[in-house]
């Protein structure tokens, strides 16, 4: 008999941290450079972005991490995290970096402070203190790095200080592969302390990069061979060891930017140098006035904006004010310190990053292959829409434009071109329903019904534009018209679980089998998509009601009811919802299976949709999750894990047991279980599930978890894995948005609806109460929830501005008004 749980023991640990939360300054402070993995931050909130690690590693790009990559980064390299935003200090032959890497000289003191859109690396060695402050200012396509040096000794000190970045030749894919061409195309130009990276300007004539300093340089380099040495590298560059650069000008090969300053600091003296890395795009293509000459006017204006410490300080204040205003729209005070910091700060911060990045650029996503995901971006919007609704609106229209006329859609698109990625194509049959999900969320948040009238192209062809409502209609219709033998939606290439490939290659006793076609076969069905269709189909029907499309709403509900019934019958396995039916009509996620008997996804989404709530099946399904899938580190995706490769299931069984989709703890769908528990009124269980993957609650196991303790990761190794509890793929994950939806709307119960805010919490009975400040449609709601009877669910009374109201739906306030709400549970 195969056990539902593996043989590997829980890795016991003592509390171990590598830093701490500074709630007052809204920072995570890292106390040692030797974190289990590089712990990073994202700089930028508009078009220019940088990733920076706690030791100064990382890279920069403009809008698109593949097509507009400014600096190089080598993934899967050893030593790890060598490329980045580097400052070297040569102090009489002792070479060190403020962030420890890449020289790795032991520092007397080290601190990294990751804040909201900025990072500060502070190192000290032999009485010299260096602070490297990095941020991307609002409204400009550049990164600012301010280096502040202080002589803390009683004697004058002479230092040689170097900056260093390695330029990427724009297209990161071509840069990493097309060496026969790229070794001949690199071009630079140096004007005083500005190094212009012009590669591709000869061809495109409309963009370039500039790496500058605000002080005269002693020397410079633009050739990597000259700065590092032909057989050297970033650990100990030849120029840094020599104490000077060679004023090299790169012609092809590997262009870099390096500044050198020979400085003397008096006792107690501080000096700052401001570096900037900027992207310049000229609005009109220009003819060269001479070969290789670029228009530097915009670069010079950019450099002038950050020439002084006062200007940089003002830019930092503007950035802080921006985040203060943004986060003030959703603030929690509960007395539960870890809950407050995640809801009010770090979870929302990560939601902004995932909205900007989708899955395109992290320390796990190279920025080359994926671009923006259709379903990813739709889900990311769920956690972001309350922050900047206007940007959410724009994103919905961009996503919808990658849809096809039949309602299906490209699975990914490039952020620079906004065109669908034909290399990946379409055929993931859950994609269309996510467009309904994010549009409905936008309407609940804003009440902006005009978005449904916006003309949106199909496949980015404006000649075939239709109102957004027609796109939603075709999304709904696509699922409704693609049902399988059991009345369940067809899965296509895959559904939310990209690795469950039921139509690709299958094996049956005595025969080989392959289904081909645009969606790779019309046979396999998904119970998960069925749950989606019921949940988001009902949201679509509600939109029809508000638009007075009465017959369409009724027709939609008839179709939804049929799929719901199929889910309760063909989709039910006796104690939980099945996952799917494969290409031969055999159930997946069933007690009939020898492995993979129960999956997490349908239990969460079906109960969230309300399926089986009245019949007891929802209760049974969640009980099965707790009994068969729960672990100390979260809920695993399936059990028992697949121990052999299954041709009829595809990639899911290609992973070793306990990793990723093969019984890993996929943090993205853990919130679905928590949400589902609140649907049934189980506040204690919902909060327990929430805490298991919440970074602030698992900070003490950082040596096991390994990824950043201030943001969510995509997956954690499951009980079948030798590294049980180890996380991977941090930052860019739908976990961020779904967890914020879970904790803000399902647990704390502040729910936007088409008609206003509803307050209907489902909390642990131990939570005595909390207050929420919530900006909604221009008004500010101050909501106080009290739990005097220690209940998990149930609203006893609601008062608004001192007057009692019936029910839990708050009257819609006018923009600019402030509303006082008191809610008593009982």
Provide a count of the helices.
20
Strand arrangement within the widest β-sheet reads: 1-2-9-10-11-12-19-16-15-14
CATH class descriptor of the largest domain: Mainly Beta
Tell me the strand percentage band: 25-35%
- Architecture of the largest domain in CATH? Distorted Sandwich
Could you name the CATH homologous superfamily of the largest domain?
A: Glycoside hydrolase, family 65, N-terminal domain
Q: N- to C-terminal separation?
A: 46 Å
Q: How many structural domains? A: 4
Structural class: alpha+beta
Largest sheet, strands/sense/barrel: 10 strands, antiparallel
* CATH fold title of the largest domain: Beta-galactosidase, Chain A, domain 5
What radius of gyration results from the CA coordinates? 28 Å
pLDDT under 50 segments (min length 5)? 1-10, 506-520
> What best-fitting shape do the alpha-carbon axes yield?
globular
**Total E-strand runs:** 43
Helix percent reads: 25-40%
Chain oligomer state: single chain
Mean pLDDT, all residues: 94
Domain Glycosyl hydrolase 94 catalytic: 322-749
GO molecular function: carbohydrate binding; glycosyltransferase activity
Protein name: Glycosyltransferase family 36
Organism: Faecalibacterium duncaniae (strain DSM 17677 / JCM 31915 / A2-165)
């Amino acid at each position: 008999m195969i056990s539902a749980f593996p043989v590997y023991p829980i890795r016991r640990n003592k509390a171990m941290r590598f830093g701490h939360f500074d709630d007052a300054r809204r920072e995570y402070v890292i106390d040692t450079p030797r974190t289990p993995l590089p712990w990073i931050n994202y700089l930028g909130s508009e078009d220019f972005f940088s990733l920076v690690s706690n030791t100064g590693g990382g890279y920069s790009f403009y809008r698109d991490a593949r097509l507009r990559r400014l600096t190089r980064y080598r993934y899967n390299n050893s030593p790890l995290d060598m490329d980045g935003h580097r400052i070297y200090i040569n102090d009489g032959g002792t070479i060190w970096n403020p962030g420890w890497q890449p020289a790795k000289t032991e520092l007397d003191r080290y601190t990294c402070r990751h804040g909201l859109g900025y990072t500060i690396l502070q190192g000290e060695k032999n009485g010299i203190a260096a602070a490297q402050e990095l941020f991307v200012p609002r409204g400009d396509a550049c990164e600012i790095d301010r280096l502040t040096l202080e002589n803390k000794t009683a004697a004058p000190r002479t230092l040689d200080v170097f900056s260093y970045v390695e330029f990427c030749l724009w297209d990161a894919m071509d840069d990493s592969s097309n060496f026969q061409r790229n070794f001949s195309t690199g071009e630079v130009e140096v004007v005083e302390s500005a190094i212009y990276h012009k590669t591709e300007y000869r061809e495109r004539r409309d963009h370039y990069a500039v790496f500058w300093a605000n002080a005269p340089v002693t020397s410079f380099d633009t050739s990597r061979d000259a700065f590092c040495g032909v057989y050297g590298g970033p650990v100990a560059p030849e120029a840094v060891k020599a104490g000077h650069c060679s004023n090299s000008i790169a012609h092809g090969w590997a262009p870099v930017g390096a500044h050198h300053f020979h400085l003397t600091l008096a006792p107690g003296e501080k000096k700052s140098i401001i570096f900037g890395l900027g992207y310049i795009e000229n609005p009109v293509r220009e003819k060269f006035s001479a070969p290789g000459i670029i228009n530097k006017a915009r670069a010079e204006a950019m450099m002038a904006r950050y020439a002084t410490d006062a200007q940089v300080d003002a830019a930092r204040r503007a950035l802080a004010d921006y985040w203060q205003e943004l986060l003030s729209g959703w603030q929690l005070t509960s007395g539960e310190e870890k809950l407050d910091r995640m809801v009010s700060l770090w979870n929302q911060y990560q939601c902004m990053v995932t909205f900007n990045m989708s899955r395109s650029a992290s320390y796990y996503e190279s920025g080359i292959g994926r671009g923006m995901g259709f379903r990813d971006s739709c889900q990311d919007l769920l956690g972001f829409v309350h922050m900047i609704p206007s940007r959410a609106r724009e994103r919905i229209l961009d996503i919808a434009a990658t849809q096809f006329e039949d309602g299906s859609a490209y699975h990914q698109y490039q952020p620079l071109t906004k065109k669908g990625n034909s290399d990946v194509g379409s055929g993931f049959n859950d994609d269309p329903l996510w467009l309904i999900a994010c549009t409905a969320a936008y309407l609940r948040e804003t009440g902006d019904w005009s978005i449904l009238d916006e003309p949106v192209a199909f496949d980015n062809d404006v000649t075939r534009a239709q109102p957004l409502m027609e796109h939603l209609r075709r999304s709904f219709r696509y699922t409704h018209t693609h049902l399988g033998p059991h009345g369940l939606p067809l899965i296509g290439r895959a559904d939310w679980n990209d690795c469950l490939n039921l139509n690709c290659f299958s094996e049956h006793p005595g025969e080989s089998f392959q289904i081909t076609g645009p969606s790779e076969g019309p046979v396999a069905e998904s119970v998960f998509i069925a749950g989606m269709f019921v949940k988001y189909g009902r949201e679509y029907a509600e939109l029809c009601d508000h638009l007075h499309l009465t017959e369409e709403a009724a027709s939609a509900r008839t179709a939804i009811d049929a799929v719901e019934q199929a889910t309760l019958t063909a989709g039910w396995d006796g104690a939980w919802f099945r996952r799917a039916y494969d290409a031969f009509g055999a159930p997946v996620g069933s007690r009939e299976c020898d492995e993979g008997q129960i999956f997490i996804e349908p239990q969460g989404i079906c109960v969230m949709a309300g399926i089986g709530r009245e019949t007891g099946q929802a209760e049974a399904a969640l009980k099965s999750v707790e009994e068969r899938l729960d672990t100390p580190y979260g809920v695993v995706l399936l059990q028992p894990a697949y121990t052999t490769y299954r041709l009829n299931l595809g990639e899911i069984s290609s992973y070793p047991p306990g990793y990723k989709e093969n019984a890993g703890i996929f943090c993205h769908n853990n919130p679905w279980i928590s949400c589902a528990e609140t649907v049934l009124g189980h506040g204690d269980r919902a909060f327990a599930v929430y805490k298991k993957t919440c970074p602030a609650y698992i900070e003490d196991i950082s040596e096991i978890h390994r990824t950043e303790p201030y943001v969510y990761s995509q997956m954690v190794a499951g009980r079948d894995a030798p590294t049980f509890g180890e996380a991977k793929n941090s930052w860019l994950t739908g976990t961020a948005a779904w967890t914020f939806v879970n904790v803000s709307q399902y647990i704390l119960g502040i729910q936007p609806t088409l008609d206003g805010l509803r307050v209907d919490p489902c909390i642990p009975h131990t939570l005595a109460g909390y207050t929420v400040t919530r900006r909604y449609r221009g008004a500010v709601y101050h909501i106080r929830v009290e739990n005097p009877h220690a209940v998990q669910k149930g609203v006893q009374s609601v008062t608004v501005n001192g007057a009692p109201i019936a029910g839990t739906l708050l009257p819609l306030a006018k923009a600019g008004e402030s509303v006082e709400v008191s809610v008593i549970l009982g």
